[in-house]
Amino acid sequence: MLFTDSSFSPETSPGYLVRMIHQMNVAAVDRALAEDGLTAMQWTTLVSLFFRHADTCGGLARKLGHDKGAMTRLIDQMEAKGWVSRQRDDEDRRLIRLTLTPAGTETALAAKRKVIACWNGFLADWSDADVAEMIAMLQRLRHTMEEKMAEESDACAA
């Protein structure tokens, strides 16, 4: 099905639906992690460092769709809590690499268990096959969008 003027509304818009799901997830994760002094944004930053999706403030900002200045302030807070350490890159002294401290790793793993509990609660009445299909579809959409955006970027550079 391709969208038309008559078939496209907020309730059928993938962007709108993903945005609403994201907002509800952030609110739920914020509540679940509040007693640990952790926010959803701090959690996503910790987990991004844990899985090595990025290791600089700029890289994290790009990966998480966050402002570089705000990301720097967030890293400052996380460093003050003892969760993240900064080291200058040996080969390029302009770069500051970020790593989780042992306390940061412990915090990330404890938070991961709470986030898993949130998602298990949301999906409690879904079958394993439904969950696997949803994840596969979202991964497929992400891959398609990444390819299309790369093509557009390449076309603009030419």
UniProtKB/TrEMBL annotation:
The keyword Transcription regulation applies. SMART domains: HTH_MARR. This is Multiple antibiotic resistance protein MarR. GO terms for molecular function: DNA binding; DNA-binding transcription factor activity. InterPro entries: HTH_MarR-typ, Tscrpt_reg_MarR-type_CS, WH-like_DNA-bd_sf, WH_DNA-bd_sf. Residues 14-143 form the HTH marR-type domain. Keywords: DNA-binding, Transcription, Transcription regulation. It comes from the Bacteria.
